[in-house]
Design goal:
Layout: E1 24-31, H1 45-63, H2 66-71, E2 75-85, E3 95-106, E4 119-132, E5 142-160, E6 184-185, H3 193-196, E7 204-205, E8 211-216, H4 230-247, E9 256-264, E10 273-283, E11 286-297, E12 300-301, E13 307-314
Parallel strand pairs: 3-6
Antiparallel strand pairs: 1-3, 2-5, 2-9, 3-4, 4-5, 7-10, 8-10, 9-13, 10-11, 11-12, 11-13
Length: 315
């Protein structure tokens, strides 16, 4: 299990809460463990990211014949995620209540039949847990049994034919295995590097020059999908945000990562070299780190990032 992926077993109930045909909704409870919480007893963003895959597949696999789609050369890949955490302390061994709604979606916002059309899933997550004390001497104590919101998330999966001709990689036409789900057109198109880079007028550069860190992915960064686990990228973005905060002369120990949003263009595999590049913007106690993970070619890091993220925090 990668270091950024939290512990815990997922158990789901029947997806009966959603209206037939609109979406698939699953609910589950996960016991919180020591690595899932930070020193302030708040659930880590990287814990939320680590849970998204088992929670997601529980709903999809129970309602869609994934095997048949894979048999025809199709797969779903994460192309966007956005996770936020709340501010209240939780408790070790408390139940984390989750609700996941999965919708079949057209991702460009244009609808079917357009050159930009592409199909996939828009998945929303809600997390809640009883309030804890925030006291290290009473780390398992819950102040009540009533769950309170502690995080939310969104994941967009794009349907692809990974081994098909380039012009046919994106799935643009409805599939029979998804005919029982209504196709929703996104109100806003799929997020991009440009849309994630937007900040308000109050933000200014907090570090004079962008910071770069290089490395090579190893087998320990991968999962059974044969590529680097999604949580490794977002963990690297959080780490870069912390480094930038320290470079800016702010308190790294007091900096809270509250949101991570990312878009994914191309995966990395074991053995691939990479460069993480980041810049930090600040407005008062609010920070936004814009972080790209770039593949490295013969002439150095490529201009466009393979993965790009926005890390929001407070200091």
């Amino acid at each position: 299990m990668p270091a950024s992926q939290p512990s815990g077993h997922v158990t789901a109930t029947d997806p009966a809460a959603a209206a037939p045909g609109e979406s698939v909704t699953t609910q589950s409870r996960i016991p919180l463990e020591v690595p899932d919480l930070d020193a302030g007893f708040r659930i880590k963003v990287r814990s939320l990211v680590g849970w998204f895959a088992p929670l997601m597949y529980e709903g999809i696999s129970r309602s869609v014949d994934v095997g048949a789609m894979r048999g025809r050369g199709m797969a779903s890949v994460v192309s966007h995620l956005d996770f936020r955490r709340g501010g209240a302390p939780a408790a070790v061994a408390a139940p984390l209540h989750t609700a996941v709604e999965t919708r079949h979606a057209e991702l460009s916002g244009e609808g079917l039949g357009r050159p930009t059309s592409r199909l996939g899933f828009d998945i929303r997550y809600a997390f809640s847990t009883p309030l804890g004390t925030g006291d290290p001497r009473r780390y398992r104590e819950q102040l009540s049994e009533e769950p309170r919101p502690c995080g939310e998330g969104r994941v967009v999966l794009t349907l692809v034919r990974p081994f098909g001709p380039v012009a046919e990689r994106l799935v643009r036409e409805p599939q029979p295995e998804l005919a029982h789900l209504r196709l929703h057109v996104l109100k806003e198109p799929h997020p991009t590097v440009e849309s994630l880079s937007e900040t308000g007028p109050g933000f200014a550069e907090a570090v004079a020059e962008p910071v770069e860190v290089r490395g090579t992915y190893g087998l320990q960064h991968t999962d059974v999908n044969q590529f680097v686990f999604t949580g490794e990228y977002t963990a690297a973005m959080e780490d870069m945000a912390t480094r930038l905060v320290a470079e800016a002369g702010m308190s790294a120990a007091g900096h809270s990562v509250d949101r991570v949003a990312a878009v994914f263009k191309a995966p990395f595999a074991a053995g691939d070299p990479y460069a993480v590049r980041g810049r930090l913007l600040r407005d008062g106690d609010r920070t936004v780190a814009l972080v790209g993970i770039h593949s490295i070619g013969p002439n150095g890091p490529r201009l466009r990032p393979a993965v790009f993220g926005r890390v929001e925090g407070t200091c």
